[in-house]
Amino acid sequence: MNLLHRAQGCFNPGRDAAIATLRKAEVVACDETGVRIEGSNAYHWVLHSAQAVVHTASPTRGAVVVREMMDGHRRAVWISDRYTAQQGHADEHQTCLAHLARDIAYVVEVSDDPVPWRLQLWLGSVFALAERVNALAAATLSAKRRSLD
Fold this sequence. Notes:
This is Transposase. Residues 3-143 form the Transposase IS66 central domain. By secondary structure, this protein is an alpha/beta fold. Helix content is 50%, strand content 26%. A five-stranded mixed beta sheet has the order 3-2-1-4-5. α3 (97-110) runs antiparallel to α4. The protein starts with a helix and ends with a helix.
């Protein structure tokens, strides 16, 4: 750990540049997960945009981590799970589709209701479209988007 503390200064300029870039992004995705740091429970946060990725560790899972990282910079869209601390950081919120897919898969397993199964099929179409989106012509993309509505 001492080596990491000594080397920390070497990484600060890159970290500061990544944070500045993140604060300018219109769309930011964020997730956090529990970790152990020096024997204590903590959280590893990952915030990213198309141009930057920032990793940070915190003893808390609270919204204060996002507020401090974004420093008052409000985004157009925030992508995250549905955890309360992840809400309210942008004009619009998009639920992370990977989290949603996991939740739907669980409901499909434990329920006989056809709605989760249909939602799982629809989400599969969304993921398939996302994999090809950069290769599609604008008109094709518009038609696909309308078909998902």
